[in-house]
Every structure is written in structure tokens, then in C-alpha cells.
Amino acid sequence: MLDERGAQVLRLVVEDYIETAEPVGSRTISKKMGQALSPATIRNIMADLEEVGYLCQPHTSAGRIPTGAGFRYYINHLLARKQLIRSERDLLQQVAEAGVAGADDMVRHASRLLSTLSRHACVVVVSRFSHQALRSLSLLRASSDRILLVAVLQGGWVQHRLIEDEPGLTTDELEKINAYLSDLAVGLTLPQLRAKILNEMKREKARYDSLMRRALLLGSKALSESVPGEVYIEGRANILEQPEFAEDVQKLKRILHAFEEKSVILRLLDAAMESEALQVSIGSENPVEELPEISVVSSGYHQGETAMGSIGLIGPVRMDYSRVIPLVEYTARLLSSILENR
User: Fold this and answer.
1) What does the pLDDT average to over 193-216?
2) What predicted TM-score, i.e. pTM, was given to this entire model?
3) Stretch 322-336: mean pLDDT, rounded?
4) What's the CATH fold of domain 86-127+230-340?
5) 161, 222 in Cβ contact below 8 A?
6) Which CATH number is associated with domain 4-78?
7) Which whole number is the average pLDDT over 46-75?
8) What is the per-residue DSSP string for 278-332?
């Protein structure tokens, strides 16, 4: 643990670096402290902070910048969270209105607002749809030989599956198949429904009713593939506004490329998926080793006891954590509250 003077200097260095993205000198800190300590004294304290790994000096003649360990100490011991202002809370409350139309619209709206308010990239991950029970299942005619399966899940998300090469079904037959599959599906997850359909197909009685057999074959065909979750990303362009990325084209390209890889995004937010606690991964702490320049602030959201996904902000290590953390926490709680009442 740092003494009072060391902690105060570290806090001021971190906050100045967050604001300016430039190395911080001893004279700057002395002025911020109202000349309570001389620049020479502050240089000595900075040297001590560098020795324990909380600051580093990018150039011999430059000031200091915080290391990942320095940011971690700041977040754990020195951070003073900012309160969301009324207008920000009012904007985020609009997420509830979007939720009326559907869960997809709700999470997209949440990510868009959070990105706008924070000026960082926002990612919302929806957990694998296979974890969620079905609310309804419908088969609709898409063309003369194609059937569209529409599954509405408990969280309000909608899944579509197109079944090819299914000619010859009349409207009346399709309605009967719909009713039969709907009865089978109620309260089950998609993998559970597929297992039930396969079990029914093995039963002797299923062979005597050709329409029932056709219904089971259709259901089996539609559910033959696993159902992944979704990833929604907003505010990629905000990355371009960060000076530490804009000045290094290769670094910027690597980060933007990572945003195109769904598996990378899932790894970045994976820790928050099952947890209700806020997660802060700073630089090299984040689970994607090839992206040590970014930090992730994320939180899971839930429907009752069921983890539904996670939401997070992705930006430089030099994020304004005092503002970003309460934004993410508030939005995650809001999503959980909306889903709980659906």
C-alpha cells in the first residue's frame, strides 16, 4: 500500500494522463497540488512509484505515465466514481421502450446509447440461445418449397431457420404440423426440443401417421445445427478518436480487425457472462493477449437466475474509469430489470 503522498501523486498522474494522453511532469502535479510539494519532491515520489512498477518513463526527458499496475492500484484504491447525471439516466431509460418491440432492439439500443455517452466502442453479447426456454414456435411458408421456422425464446429474442426443399405441404397440413410442434416445444430449450423430436421419431407410433412423421422430420431438420448467441457492436469509429491508436496505424488495424472476429469479442467479455459483478480488465490483464493496448469494462445481465449475456465498453487503457464503470453498471442493471419484467 502506498503512503498518502504516494497515493495522491499516483492519482493525479493517472487522472492527468487520462485527460491529456501525454506524459505527466512533476511541475504539472505540483501545480495541481497547489504547490504543497515542490517539483523536486514530486520527482522523488514519481521515481519511487516507478521503482514499484506503478509509473514508467517513455522517454528520458519526458514525464511519467501510469503502467497497467498503476491503473489497477488506482481503480482498486483511489477511484472516485462519478454519478450519472439526470439526462444520462433518462436516455438510458429509453432502453425499456425499445424492449417493448423485442430483445434484439433493446440490446442494440442499449449498446448504441452506451457508446454515444462514453465515446468508446460498446459490445453486447447475448448468451447462447440454447440456454433459453422457448416461448413459442411457428412454421411459416416462405416459398413453394421453403419453410421458415420462427422460434421466440423466453428472453424475447427471435431465431429464424429456413428449411429448404420442402414442397407439397398444404396450408391445412402446415397448420396441423405447427400445432403439433408447438405442443412439443413449450417450456423446452432448443437442444431439449431436438432431443425430444429425435426420441419421438424412434417411437413406433410415430410411424403410423405420415403428417406427424413429416412434422418431426421438419423439426429435426430445422434444429440440426447448434444455436449460437449474438454479438452487437456499436461505436467502432470511436477507436479512431483515441490518440494512442490514431498515431500507430498497425496497432489500429490490429484492434479494428479484432472487432470483426466474433470469437475475440466473446473472449474479451467472457468473464462477465456468468457473473453479476463488474469486471475490469486492464491492458495485459484482458484475455486476448494480442490486444494489450485496450481495456474492457463489462458486466453480466440476467433474467432472474439465468445469465443472459454481458455488456461492456472497450477502449484504451487510458479510459476514464470513474465515468465508464458507473455507466456499464447502470446499463447492465437496467437490462436485467427489463428482462425480469418481460
Assistant:
1) 75
2) 0.79
3) 94
4) Beta-Lactamase (3.30.450)
5) yes
6) 1.10.10.10
7) 93
8) -EEE-GGGSS-TT-TTEEEEEEEEEETTEEEEEEEEEEETT--HHHHHHHHHHHH
Q: Are 177 and 125 in contact (CB under 8 A)?
A: no
The 10s digit of each residue's pLDDT in 70-111 is 999 999 999 999 999 999 999 998 887 766 667 778 888 899
Q: Which residue has the cell 423446452?
A: 188
8, 296, 292, 65 alpha-carbon torsion, rounded to 10° = -20
Q: Residue 28: is its pLDDT beyond 80?
A: yes
> Distance between the two ends of the chain, CA-based, in angstroms?
46
Interatomic CA distance for residues 197 and 216, integer angstroms: 6
Which residues make Cβ contacts (< 8 Å) with residue 262, sequence separation at least 6? 231
| pLDDT tens, residue by residue, 303-316 | 777 777 889 999 99
Domain with CATH 1.10.10.10 in the chain: 4-78
Residue of 220 and 11 predicted with greater confidence: 11
Name the fold adopted by 132-222.
Enolase-like; domain 1 (3.30.390)
pLDDT computed for residue 205 by the predictor: 61
CA torsion 93-256-323-338 (nearest 10°) is 20
Q: Where in the chain is the domain with CATH 3.30.390.60?
A: 132-222
CATH 3.30.450.40 residue spans of the chain: 86-127+230-340
Question: Do 218 and 139 touch, CB atoms closer than 8 A?
Answer: yes
